[in-house]
Amino acid sequence: MNPDLSMQWREHLRRHNIAPAGILGEDGRYTLAAELLIDDARALRFSVTHSPLGPSPLDCSHTSVDWPMDQTQNPPARPNRDERLRLRYDMSAKFKLVYGNVRTQVPEGS
Predict the structure, then answer these.
(1) Which of 25, 35, 54, 105 has its CA 20 to 30 A from that of 97?
(2) Does residue 14 sit in helix, strand or coil?
(3) Do the Cβ atoms of 87 and 66 come closer than 8 Å?
(4) Residue 35: strand pairing partners
(5) Cis geometry, peptide bond prior to residue 76 (ω within 30 degrees of 0)
């Protein structure tokens, strides 16, 4: 099986007849949906795994992204605080907004 096939979340949503807005649920605190390409997560050395539930990769599979293994001392431990902040910042720069509108002003100097 090609694990990259399971990364096609748009196909997954379509199979379940859910729009990107549907993953936010009823909780009004969540107003944005974004996607991260698996290649980008891997380039940042994050661990990427998938768990197929059906007989074919696109039947119903989910992807998990976890801390880079070389940054954890004793899994499931996590990197130190500074490294977590750096990894989160690097990852956030790769996200692409697919639903919603940012309601806050961009900080000056960003």
Answers:
(1) 54
(2) helix
(3) no
(4) 96
(5) yes
Residue count of the chain, please give it: 110
- Is the pTM here over 0.90, yes or no? no
Digit-coded pLDDT (tens) for 38-93: 889 889 988 887 766 666 555 565 677 888 877 766 665 778 889 889 999 999 99
Question: At 83, phi and psi to the nearest 5?
Answer: -70, -40
Burial per residue of 32-62, b for 16 or more beta-carbon CB atoms within 10 angstroms, e otherwise: ebebbebebbeebebbbebebeeeebeeebe
Greatest Cα pair distance, the chain, in angstroms, is 50
- In Å, how far are 10, 22, 29 from 26, measured between CA atoms? 20, 9, 9
